[in-house]
Structure formats: C-alpha cells, structure tokens
Design a protein that fits this description.
The complex is a heterodimer of chains A (194) and B (381). By secondary structure, chain A is an alpha+beta fold. Chain A is 21% helix and 11% strand. In chain A, the strands form 2 sheets. In chain A, strands 2-3-5 form a 3-stranded antiparallel beta sheet. Chain A has a two-stranded antiparallel ribbon with strand order 1-4. The N and C termini of chain A lie far apart (86 Å). Chain B has 12 helices and 7 strands. The chains are: A alpha+beta (194), B mainly alpha (381).
Chain lengths: 194, 381
C-alpha cells in the first residue's frame, strides 16, 4: 500500500545549499581559529596527551586496591576473611597469622601473614571494600592496573598492596582506629568489662 | 626558448621540490587542522629520540612514519588481478597530477643579468627574461585539461584491474564523475579565455597584474572580479576533480569499502594518496593563477611597491622572491580552505553529484560564457 510521505519543508536558502554550506564552514573555522590561536586553557580542545597528562579520576573511582596502614605502619587488616568471602571473583587469598604471646593484640585479633589479590581475576566490584569491618582494604588509589605482558605482575602481594597510597597521598584512613586497651575503645576489653 | 636547458632543469627541480614538500605537509595539515576543527589535539606522537630528547615537531614527523610504513608494508596484488594494469594504475594517477604543474607560473620573468637593479616606474628590461614556469606551452591551459584528464584513467584502471566488485564500482564512479566535471571545469574556463584573451597562463597572470586604466591609482583587478561566477563553479568542479569529500563517492567507505583503492596496499596505495594530495595542490595553484592573481602581490610592480603613487623601489631579485613567496602563501591559504571544506561537509549522494554537475554547474557555466561574451561585445563596440 502506498504511503504518503510528507516532504520536509525547506526554505529556498536551505534548498539552495550554499548559505548553509557557508554557515557550516563558519562553524568549522570558528573552532579552528579558537583552538589554533588561543592557549590550551582557553581553547575548546577536550582531548589530552594521555601518558603525559592524566585526568584526575573521580573520588569514588574504583582503582587498584590498597591495604591501609595503622599508625605504626602495620596493616589495619585483621584477617577476618570478610573480603575474600564477599569477593564474587574469588581473587583474594589470605592466610591469617596470630600475634605473638604477650603482645596486646594476642588473642584479640589476627593479622594477614599472606594477603594476595589477583588483579587479573578482580572485577573491581568493590564488594571487598564494602565488606571490610576495619576499613583495611580500599580502592581509592586512583590508578588502574598498569599494563604488562606477564601474569606474575598482576598478582599483588601484601607489600605491594601496602606500598600504594590513596588518592590523597596518605597510607592511613580518616576513620579512627582504637587499639585494644585504649580508653576510647568502644568494645569489651581483655577482662570482658566495658 | 627562454633560459635554456639548465634553467628549465632548475625550474623542474624547484617545482618538484615544492610539490614533494607540500604533499607531506598537507598530510600533516589535514590531520592537525581537522583536529583543531573538531576540538581535538590530533596526532603529535611520532618523534625521533635523541638521548632523552624526543623531537616531534608538533606531529610533522607523522608523514615520515607514514612513508616508512608504506615502504615496508607488503605490496599485495590480488591473485586474479591484472598484474600489469594493477601496477600501472598508481603511476597513471600520480604522474599527470605532478606534470600539470609544468605550465603554472610561480613567478614573473627573471632577468639574470639585472638581479640587483631597481627599475624606474615605466621602465622595462631590454632582454626577455626567464619565465618562471617550467614550460611555456602555447596551448597553455588546454595542456592542463589534456594531462589532468588522464588522471581519470588511473582510477578507472585501478578499479578495473583489481578484480573486485567494490573496486570496479569505485573505478566506474570515479571515471564518470571526473569526466562529467571535466566538462564543467572546461566550460567555466572559457569565460576566462575570453576575458584574458590568451591561453597562456603567464599572460593571464600578467593581465591580472596590469593596472586597470579606468581605476585611479595602480589598481589591478584579479580574475575573480571579472569572473565571480566562474570562480565558484571552477572551485566546486576542482574539488570534485580531486575526488575528495564531499565528492568522494568513488571511494565512499560506507558503501564501497575503499572504492578503487580497496585492493591496494603499501607504496602503491601511497602513490594514490600522494596523487590525491598533489591534485589538491595543483588545483589550488590553478585556481590562484586563473582567478586570484597568480603570483601577484597587491601593489607590487616590477619596479617595487607602488601604493597610490608612493613608490618604494625594490631590487629585481627581491621582487621575484616576493612573487614566489606570495604564490606559495596563496596556495597555502587555498589549501587551508579546501581542507576546511573537506572536513565540514558530508559526502553527496552519487546522484546528487551527477545532478550538481549536469543540471547546475554546466548550465551555469554556459550562462557565464553567454554573459561574458555579451559584455565583451558591448565594451568593444
């Protein structure tokens, strides 16, 4: 069945094409002159010379993981395995270790002897960060995994993870940590008294 | 004969150098200019590393990298292709494009014996000088059409010999498009012959440089004033002749892969590429010579600058140098304009290209001839 198609209504100047061409060339030339003869800051150029210039990632960008530090430089991680349990890609491997006899943390918390993240398996979902009760694992480094041709380079161990600062440049987190025995410690103390 | 063999050889070398420097520059200009028009930085990466220093020259080395890539890539000939014609195609496309430049004057008449003389107004050199064009052929502009017309053979042969449907359709399109626009191109110029009363390009430029008697001062009028319509018709047809956007139906990527270039790789593709750029250069040079005064710098006469009777004498060699520089600068400006058009307009549909040629450009150029003839007849009587 034939269908009536309405013709687009064009004015004579549009139909003759030439004024429209001139307009279009004008737009191109405006961009050309603005971008060529003004400084980068004043130009409309939106691309960057990537490896030399880098865009700052947004604050909540999920980059490579880091393990946050305590004030004394040890990891905040208590090896509770919440992150590795939550991880849908199963890329976190933790071997827990006990603190030595006589230390204040003995019998109170553990520490990760081995903490390995396989960044090739990781899907950067951020569940580990959500799961962590101690704010010990974060993805706020602002870097993505650097390219490499070797698999070993993507297996990040504890030292590697602790060597990366957050986007703000510190290894700590803003969340306070209360060592057992501190007066500010909200939980039970060793004698199970408040 | 003006100048002898050595002068001719030197002129050929000069012209070839101009073309061969312009072609890579054009690749660079095309990339960077399109980037600037599209709010990008464009390619600036290719560089030569000397120690810690990375010399990139703002992307000027990219054409060099391109050339190296062309040379090292496999020169693949399709198994069922006509091997002779397949190799001949790029040559037929490139050589005429370069040889068109032979008759385009890039400067006035050079007098080797009087290099540092400053002429008085009205005075001329006694001996005939060396005309700064490679060949002062009697048929002049007709030579250009004869040679440029063979360019179409390159595209057609390439399309035919590749034994590929895309290439064949591209070649056929190229042939019909170029033949059509050749007609329009030729007819727009008939008006020019009538005004300039000569087929020699050097004479045409001299005409455009000569001060007009009915204007005060020493104003000379460029061809665009006498033939405004022809200028636009010629410009359109010339862009169509170069087979570049918006007239790039012969290699329209969306429907024909790469048209007649589909089966070409390596340096053979590079030659087509070069040929296209050389065509841009020669068409710009021709446009300038015919309509924009050629090497004429306003107010620069043979004896120096003459601005409304205020005369500054300039030595002969400097006059010639200024003329050559003017010519090159004009080419740069026209090429810039062509690139702006190439990066602004979308491709015409194939039937639109043909309609534009046969229904608009051709009748308009015929009207132009008629009006020009009538005006000239009126003025002579």
């Amino acid at each position: 069945m034939a269908k009536l198609v309405s013709r687009p209504s064009r004015t004579f100047s549009e139909q003759s094409y030439i004024p429209e061409i001139v307009k279009g060339l004008g737009v191109s030339m405006k961009h050309f002159f603005k971008n060529t003869f003004s400084s980068r800051a004043n130009s409309d150029i939106v691309t960057i010379a990537y490896p030399e210039e880098k865009r700052i990632y947004p604050e909540r960008f999920r980059g490579v993981h880091r393990l946050t530090h305590r004030a004394d430089g040890t990891p905040r991680c208590v090896a509770c395995l919440c992150c590795s349990t939550a991880c849908p890609a199963q890329c976190i491997h933790i071997e827990a270790g006990e603190y030595g006899e006589g230390t204040s943390q003995h019998g109170y918390e553990r520490y990760p002897k081995v903490f390995v993240i396989d960044e090739l398996r990781c899907i950067f979902c951020g569940y580990c960060v959500e799961a962590c009760p101690c704010d010990a694992i974060r993805m706020d480094t602002g870097v993505h995994v650097p390219a490499s041709t070797r698999r070993e380079h993507f297996i990040f161990d504890k030292e590697m993870l602790m060597s990366m600062p957050g986007q703000d440049g510190t290894f700590l987190t803003a969340n306070p940590r209360h060592e057992p025995g501190d007066p500010s410690h909200p939980g039970l103390d060793r004698e199970h008294k408040h | 004969m003006d100048g002898g063999i050595i002068a001719t050889l030197l002129k050929i070398v000069f012209v070839v150098i101009i073309i061969l420097t312009f072609a890579p520059l054009l690749i660079w200009a095309e990339r960077r200019q399109s980037a600037m028009m599209q709010d990008r930085i464009g390619p600036t990466r290719a560089g030569i590393k000397i120690g810690n220093l990375n010399i990139t020259l703002g992307g000027l080395l990219h054409p060099l990298a391109d050339a190296l890539k062309f040379v090292w890539k496999e020169d693949f000939v399709p198994p069922a292709a006509d091997k002779l014609l397949h190799s001949l195609g790029p040559i037929i496309a490139l050589v005429p494009a370069i040889s068109v430049f032979a008759v385009i004057p890039f400067g006035g008449y050079l007098h080797l014996d009087n290099l540092f003389d400053v002429l008085e107004p009205g005075q001329v050199f006694d001996l005939p000088g060396i005309s700064l064009q490679v060949a002062n052929v009697n048929v002049g502009i007709l030579y250009i059409f004869a040679i440029a017309g063979t360019g179409v053979v390159g595209a057609a042969v390439a399309g035919y010999s590749s034994n590929s449907k895309y290439a064949l359709i591209g070649g056929v399109r190229a042939a019909s498009q170029m033949v059509s626009y050749e007609v329009a191109l030729g007819l727009t110029l008939v008006g020019c012959f009538m005004v300039y009363d000569s087929l020699l390009l050097q004479d045409m430029v001299t005409f455009q440089r000569t001060p007009v008697s009915w204007l005060p001062g020493n104003f000379s009028l460029w061809g665009i004033v006498y033939q405004p319509l022809a200028f636009f018709l010629f410009f359109t047809a010339a862009i169509a002749e170069t087979k570049r956007i918006p007239f790039d139906a012969p290699e329209g990527e969306s429907e024909l892969a790469a048209g007649y270039l589909t089966e070409y790789s390596g340096m053979k593709f590079g030659m087509f590429f070069m040929g296209e750029f050389v065509e841009v250069i020669t068409s710009s040079a021709l446009l300038i010579t015919l309509f924009l005064g050629g090497y004429d710098l306003p107010f620069l006469e043979d004896y120096g600058f003459d601005i409304f009777g205020f005369v500054v004498g300039v030595p002969h060699v400097a006059v010639i140098a200024l003329q050559v520089i003017t010519f090159i600068l004009k080419i740069v400006i026209i090429i810039w304009l062509q690139l702006t058009i190439r990066w602004s307009l979308p491709r015409f549909r194939y039937d639109q290209i043909m309609q534009l040629c046969w229904k608009i450009l051709l009748p308009a150029s015929l009207v132009n001839i008629l009006v020009t003839g009538a005006v000239i007849l009126l003025l002579r009587n």
